[in-house]
Structures are given as C-alpha cells and as structure tokens.
Amino acid sequence: PAPRTVLLTGAAGGLGTLMRELLPPYGYRLRLFDRRPVDGAPDAVIADLSDKEALRAAVAGVDAIVHLAGISLEAPFEKILRSNIGGTYHLYEAAREAGVRRVVFASSNHAVGFTPRPEDGSAAIPVNTPRRPDTYYGLSKGFGEDLASLYWDLHGIETVSVRIGSCYPAPTSVRMLSIWLSPGDCARLLHAALTAPGVGHTVVYGSSANTRLWWDLSAARALGYDPQDDSEPYAAELLAAQGPLDPANPEHAHLGGAFCTDPPRWPH
Ligand code: NAI
Ligand code: 15L
Fold it and tell me: Where does the NAD-dependent epimerase/dehydratase domain start and stop, copy by copy (predicted)?
C-alpha cells in the first residue's frame, strides 16, 4: 500500500516549504521536522538531527520519510559532519528501530560535481558515473547514498536517493537551464520515489525534462516519474543577460558550477 503518513525533515527550508504545499494533494499526511520553527505549523517537531529521543518520537508510526534536513551549501567539515553525516545516520537508526520501510533521501548533483560538464542536451551523465564530490557538502551526500545502500542490504530499508539539480520556482542561471527541477516535478518525483515498488536502494537524478539536460533521467522515469516541465522558455532571457557557458571559465567547466571554484557557504 502507498505510504500515507510521511515524516518530512527540513520542513522549514526552501524545498521543505514548497513540498509542504505540493505533497498533501497526493494523499500524504505530513509530519514536519526541522531545527528551526516551521511557519504556520505549530505541530512541527522542532529538534536537531543529533537529538535521538526527538527522532525516535518523530518517526514513530510513519510509513515513510522524506529526508531534506541538512546543511545545503558548503560549510566547515565539523558542521557537515554533525548535520549531514551524523544527522543522517541518526535518522536511519531511528527508522530502523521503528521499522520504517522507505526513505527518500535528498542527495545532490554536488556528489558528482567535479564531473566535466557534457554537451547541453546530451543527457550523457549516467547515475553510475564515479562520485566526484566538489565540496565537503557533496561528500556528505555521497555518504548519505552509501548509508542508504548499507541500510538496504543490512536492514531492508528501501531508499531512493535523488541527486537534485536546482529546485526553485524558476531557473535563475544558464547552468540551471540544464539541471532545473520545477517544484511541481519535484513533487511528482518524490511521489514516484515513495510509491514505486521494489526500489531497494536506487539513485536517480532529479530534474525536469529540460531541453539542455546534462544527465540521464531514465532511472527516475523507471520509478514512474513523468516530468511535465522544461526550463527552455527561460533560456532566451537568461542567455541574453548572462551569456552562454564558457568552456574556458573554470566555474563553467564542471557539473557543480561555482561549487567547484568558490562554493556558496552556509550562513549559520
Ligand atoms: P535549506 O537550507 O533551505 O533547508 C534545509 C533545512 O534543514 C533548514 O530548514 C535547516 O534548518 C534544516 N536543518 C539543517 N541542519 C539540521 C539539523 N542538524 N537538524 C535539523 N534540521 C536541520 O535547503 P533546501 O534548498 O530546502 O534543500 C533541502 C535538501 O535538499 C537539503 O538536504 C539539500 O542539500 C538538498 N538539495 C537541495 C537542492 C535545491 O535545489 N534546493 C539541490 C540539491 C540538493
Ligand atoms: C545544491 O545542492 C544546493 O543545496 C542548492 O542550494 C543549489 O545550489 C543546487 O545544489 C545547485 O547546484 O544549484
């Protein structure tokens, strides 16, 4: 049966805020978790991922977990270690103890960010391309994927690790034309990842059906994901404002963009 009660970690964040609106129409009842207060949600569990007791209470009785919480940009290793590596471990331990059967993990393109940028529209990068993290942040996403693999093989917890491109209401850069995930397509993909049978541990890329796609979406489509959006209507304006990607510019040479050269940093 499809999961009904879903724990959404990182509910106060950008993606969490979008998914709080877009997932319930698929029939989910969301329980919210974040270390920051969640606007308009007095019932949200406000706790850190290092708080094992809070995690135990948060996962009790849920059918599945969508794990978005974590540091979402580059940060000192100690912070990444605590929130993304330690925090994801504690969440899986709580899931194991409670018998939760399915997790959807927000991985990132930055797990493979130092992969050379392919031709626009080639969809050339497969999900089994070697990991090439571009930051400690990207490294932590590779850890999360491997933790998911371990908990599948050892404990039978299924995970879809979604290497999200850029999920925002609209693309804001030429790079994003290739990796944009519209919020509507994100909800479609999370729903597919929550309901597809027999996923074991599956890694997929998360983007819309962009004309300029850099990676292979077939693993996501195999889950039943049918993207409805394409960034192309935004292309002319962004190209006019920013110019095309320049192979001689190191910031444009890799999948991870500026994360490979001067990564944006977590402000907290
Ligand atoms: P965000 O930074 O807006 O939200 C992350 C949330 O996690 C925040 O509300 C923060 O308070 C919470 N959090 C961080 N550390 C925590 C901890 N130790 N305990 C409890 N809560 C904690 O990030 P955004 O953009 O919403 O991304 C959500 C997830 O998706 C992140 O894991 C991010 O790495 C991943 N992702 C997002 C992409 C995007 O385009 N938005 C692209 C690729 C991956
Ligand atoms: C990510 O992993 C970040 O969490 C998000 O803030 C975006 O910057 C995205 O990647 C990206 O690559 O654009």
Answer: 6-168
